[in-house]
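Session log. Operator J.P. requested a structure for one protein chain; no other inputs attached. Running the standard single-chain path with token output.
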Amino acid sequence: MKKQKGFFILESIIAIIVFVIGVVGVLEVQKRSVENTSDSQYRAQAYHMANNLINLISMDYGNISNYSSTSSACSKADLTNTNCSEFARWKSSLEGSIPNSQVELSFDGTTKIINVTIKWKNKSSDQESQYSISSHVF
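Structure written below.
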């Protein structure tokens, strides 16, 4: 009977390959978990910020024309300045809460419905996420 040489080494190499594939799988699951946590944090912040904006517009309905997606945010130095509008302050807060974010506003004067959409890019990927809300303003 012939002795088989190298069989133990082959088993060891296969076991190491299987182990490495398992570790890579676990690391990929961990990476995706962190990405999803980050996105859900931004989504919750977007929900909060969009509702704040709708409340702000509701309280200042007479000046609805001052709320424009193209308005710029206040600089940090201007945040305490009275020349800085409430919307500009809100926009500064949005930029501080959700990096790379944009807001889109639309208002239908007939139905008095405000649509707010906040968009942002995820840190880990270039995928864009968004949160939209509509509300009737009295």
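Operator note: Residues 7-59 form the longest helix (53 residues).
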